[in-house]
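Morning!

This is the sequence you dropped in the shared folder:
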Amino acid sequence: MTQSLNQFNQTAERGQIALRGEGNNLISVVVDSAEAGVIKAGDLVVLSGSNGGIPTVKKAAGEAGEVILGFAVYNVIQNEFKAGMLLEIALTSVCLTMQASAAIAAGKSVAYDTATDLVQEAPAVAAVATPVVGVALTKATAANDLIVVYIKTL
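The structure's back. Tokens below.
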């Protein structure tokens, strides 16, 4: 959704932190210089190395051997990140607003589909392209609904 200066209140955005608790498990990272695409808020990212002590990341492709780090966090100023840009990543124990691919009941484990960049109810057998990433705290009644997910990545 797009925010407008004329609206009376803000609406939820994909990749926005929700239900802030005791800790704020976020880290700053740099997009890998080899990343050809764009990382958007709510995208799953994987560790790709280090840039002088700062972790470097790339968008998850659902390939074997990827080390899942977390999710790109919504930023009101800059919401698309290219190679060399700095961004914040939500790690385990952060509640994040995510977009569902179909109806999901609250309390269900969710998996991230790297082909669609949406979350879905976790399959009985986890696949590399759809890693289990957390638990739905709110329900989705249809595709593209925004839900709050408790992140469990590391």
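Headline: DSSP finds no helices and twelve strands in the chain.

More detail when I'm at my desk.
O.
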